[in-house]
Amino acid sequence: MAGQNEEESNTMVVSALYEALSSGDVDTVHWLLAPAIERWFHGPHCHQQHMVQLLTGKSSNFTSTTAPSAKQMTSSFIFRPVSIFALGSLVLVEGGNRSRNVTWVHAWSVTEGIITHVREYFNTSVTATRFEKSKTLLNSGSCRHVWESKLCDSMSVPGLILVL
């Protein structure tokens, strides 16, 4: 990925992860993730295990030798990104599933081409701001809005602010 800036490279890494997850490519998933990825979740508990099952290979998306049952097809959760935004080592990905009335945001941390951390937000409005210290005033600063989730705009959900 030489010649690309950090944000383009990190976006490519995270996009490759979603492609590998959707195709059931366990080897690529393991290649892209740090051995001990840190994970944090916010949202309804019924959605807490979707991503961890995919990352560990315990999801029905990875039962490749036989066709999935109807129950597996309706119970497995598929993450299809609608938007991807990178800011340095942080890559924000938003998607949703209208039939389940669910929106999600993933905040991935990428270090030297390896995903080291994921924060998951289900049915939560997420706003990312960047804190910038003032160069003229001592002990002061300001927050600049850099990204906001859009898919949950029509839903009544809690909101969180990520300060970068």
Automatic annotation (TrEMBL):
Pfam families: WI12 (PF07107). It comes from Escallonia herrerae. This is Wound-induced protein 1. It comes from the Eukaryota.
